[in-house]
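Course assignment 3, question 2. Fill in each field.
Student: A.L.
Task: Predict the tertiary structure for the chain below.
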Amino acid sequence: MGQVAVLFRLMPQGVETDMAALAKGVRESAPAGVTIRGMQVKDIAFGLKALLVSVVMADTGGILESTEQAFAKVPHVESVEVMEEGLL
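Answer field:
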């Protein structure tokens, strides 16, 4: 069993969403066994921004889905999308 690097894109509910608070909520919601390696705010369009979250986790069944669900429950998150996934 190896490790997997995953890049998530979290879209906020609107342009007024506090991205720093969103990032804090993501850090606090990461499930056990998931290490957040980095976060970046990226401009999308018309003032809308996305939060890119890079994580490393064990290559076990269900952990990707549980991480995606945990991030989706963070207040002011509209959607969560897996952008990239690869074995380390």
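Instructor remarks: Residues 3-87 form a domain with the Alpha-Beta Plaits fold (CATH 3.30.70.60). The chain has two helices and four strands.
Grade: pending
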